[in-house]
């Protein structure tokens, strides 16, 4: 059982006077699949990086807790050990580190007894087959020379092996061919059905979400959660973009300039009867 709570989170780029997240509030409970959408450059990846503890970002105020434990006090490896996982939008090359060695080390962090080689290879073989990744890829340096699609499949391979409590996947569907997209969706569906894992999934496209059926949809605009709703929000965004948010809810999409006062914008919840009331405010 795991609950991730983000309270009034402000994040800036370290060493730069650039504030990206401006008061994010979000809770992810057990076995939820939360879809995170929003226009380019509005802070989605920054949120996931801040949760995982990326050193490029500095939390200036707010809280992140996992089952009541203060995530902000944890190093990145402690966050992983606590059950957080990030499948990155742009997985980076790690020359000199063999993929399978990396996986073994990451798995051992969460185990009392180190995994045996036999067990590691059994699991690797199974997950590689599932993700249609040639075993050869697991013996290469992590992501070095991997194609875009291979990197994304490899992120899901890691997810299958690490079995975190909260899986955050950043545009995992970008660059995937049709078969790989199906394999990724099947892997997520399997984890949804067989584990208590929760998901926070960023994508710009309805296709993946149609396959994995999110329980909740969150839209991030200007570094805040501007709207929460059900799958109908994805359909609307897929068909009409983001401009309707301005018309229907008065949510301003244009990014705020530095120093500009933020507009007052409570999170609007759609799919409930309060919707129209909220949008009039
Ligand atoms: N290191 C950095 N230096 C300067 N600006 C940054 C840095 N990192 C992020 N930003 C800026 O923060 C904003 C939010 O970036 P982020 O990557 O979180 O957006 P996003 O919502 O994930 O967008 P996309 O949908 O395009 O992936 C962008 O304007 C980006 O240029
Ligand atoms: Mg992004």
Characterization of the model:
It is a single chain. Residues 259-266 and 270-281 have low confidence and may be disordered. The protein has 281 residues and is of the alpha/beta class. The chain has a 7-stranded mixed β-sheet with strand order 6-9-10-3-11-12-13, with helices on both faces. It has one domain: Rossmann fold (3-Layer(aba) Sandwich), CATH 3.40.50. Strand 1 (4-13) and strand 2 form a beta hairpin. The chain contains 11 helices and 13 strands. Adenosine-5'-triphosphate (ATP) is lined by residues 13, 16, 18, 20, 38, 40-46, 56, 89.
Q: Could you give a quick summary of the protein structure above?
A:
By secondary structure, this protein is of the alpha/beta class. The chain has eleven helices and 13 strands. The strands form three sheets. A seven-stranded mixed beta sheet has the order 6-9-10-3-11-12-13, sandwiched between helices. A four-stranded antiparallel beta sheet has the order 2-1-4-5. Strands 7-8 form a two-stranded antiparallel ribbon.
Topology (SSEs and partners):
Layout: E1 4-13, E2 18-28, E3 33-37, H1 44-52, E4 57-66, E5 69-70, H2 76-82, E6 84-87, E7 94-98, H3 99-109, H4 117-130, H5 135-138, E8 141-142, H6 148-162, E9 166-170, H7 178-194, E10 198-202, H8 206-212, E11 216-221, E12 224-229, H9 232-240, H10 243-249, E13 268-269, H11 275-280
Parallel strand pairs: 3-10, 3-11, 6-9, 9-10, 12-13
Antiparallel strand pairs: 1-2, 1-4, 4-5, 7-8, 11-12
The protein binds adenosine-5'-triphosphate and magnesium ion.
């Amino acid at each position: 059982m795991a609950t991730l709570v983000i309270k009034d989170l402000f994040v800036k780029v370290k060493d730069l006077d650039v504030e990206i997240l401006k008061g994010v509030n979000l809770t992810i409970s057990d076995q939820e699949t939360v879809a995170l959408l929003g226009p380019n450059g509005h802070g989605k990846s920054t949120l996931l990086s801040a949760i995982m503890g990326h050193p490029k970002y500095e939390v200036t105020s707010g809280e992140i807790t996992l089952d009541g434990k203060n995530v902000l006090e944890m190093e990145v490896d402690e966050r992983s050990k606590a059950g957080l996982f990030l499948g990155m939008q742009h997985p980076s090359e790690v020359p000199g580190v063999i993929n399978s060695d990396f996986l073994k080390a990451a798995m051992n962090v969460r185990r009392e007894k180190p995994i045996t080689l036999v067990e590691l290879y059994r699991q690797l073989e199974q997950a590689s087959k599932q993700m249609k990744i040639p075993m050869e890829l697991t013996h290469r340096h992590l992501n070095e020379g991997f194609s875009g699609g291979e990197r994304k499949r490899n992120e899901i391979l890691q997810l299958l092996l690490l079995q975190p409590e909260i899986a955050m996947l950043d545009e995992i569907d970008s660059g995937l061919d049709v078969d790989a997209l199906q394999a990724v969706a099947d892997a997520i569906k399997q984890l949804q059905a067989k584990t208590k894992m929760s998901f926070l999934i960023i994508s710009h496209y309805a296709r993946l979400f149609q396959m994995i059926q999110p329980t909740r949809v969150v839209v991030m605009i200007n570094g805040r959660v501007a709207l929460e709703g059900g799958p109908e929000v994805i359909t609307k965004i897929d068909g009409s973009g983001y401009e309707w948010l301005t018309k229907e809810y008065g949510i301003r999409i244009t990014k705020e300039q530095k120093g500009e006062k933020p507009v007052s914008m409570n999170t609007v919840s759609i799919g409930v009867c309060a919707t129209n009331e909220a949008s009039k405010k």
